[in-house]
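Hello forum,

I keep getting stuck at the same step: I have a sequence, I want structure tokens, and every attempt I make locally crashes halfway through. Rather than fight my setup again tonight, could one of you with a working pipeline run this one for me? It's a single chain of 341 residues.
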Amino acid sequence: MNNSKKSIKWGFMGAGAILDRWMKGAAQCDDMEIVAIASRTTASADRMAKKYNIPNVLSYCELVKREEIDVVYVNTIHPAHAQLAIMAMENGKNVLVEKPAAVNEKDFIEMTECAKKNNVFLMEAVWTRFFPIFKSIDKVVESGKIGKIRLIQSSFGFSVSNESKSSRLFDENQAGGSLLDVGIYNLNFANIILKKHPSELIGMCSMDTDENHYNVDETAGVIAKFDTGEIAMMTSSIRSKMSETAYIYGSKGYIEIPHFYKPETAYVYNDGEIDTIISKVPQKIDGIVDEGYQFEIDYVNECVRNNVKCPQYVTWDNTRTILAECDKLREQCGIVYPLEK
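Reply #2:
Ran it on my machine without issues. Output:
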């Protein structure tokens, strides 16, 4: 550990299952400490505190008033993201908020105004954007090896079992559905590759497919067209297991990216040849395997140390624009969450 660095102290607002994965990334990072956790229920916060030796279990109000906390990680259900992030920022805390940063564009604009007013860091936790393999993929695209990009395809979905029908994923009051949970990765991926947002966007979804009458997008399909003719075809689901593979098709070849939302490998196909790009997530701690959260966490730590307020990799404009795209897609599907009425 480099003792010359300021140790960044974190507090958690939320005690959900995502912490079990996130903490494996945090374990790989130097010069940081988790000092407090808060949740809707003391019992869930207690469980996580005991599991990860977090010294303080607090209420949300108590946590944001703790002077030693440098940054708060908001990892609650979707509708609470904006409210809790604003609470933290109004108390001078830097914030990393799980995706989606807010339920809609309007709420995120309110969050960015709060960040500006209080001069604090705010970032949506789109961990995908930090994987180093994307720099190698960019180089392949820029080299012209696959020619001009014509089409991007990506899919991300899983099937929730009948026993899990009470899940937040099926609850419109918790902004459930596939689009905000996993479909948002597709929209981010297209932006990562093309470095721009679509000029046209068309979406459709299936909902209310059985006697339970769920008013959320259970499976969604999206077609995006970009200003110079590129097309992105994206699918997401909480009803079907999907490949989690993305393809970038060019005029001369294509790139295949397994597990595109946490990519470590890519295959470049050109003229009958296959080149393999490998960029494994480094593992520093025996017995703890991080999927890649360390990249995002390290970035936040460095931003806080260096007094950076507006993140470069997950910009406010990208988050706002992608939430606006989700708003438009939900409108096309006729999905309005009760909290928006």
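The first strand starts at residue 8 and ends at 13. If your local run keeps crashing, start a new thread with the error log.
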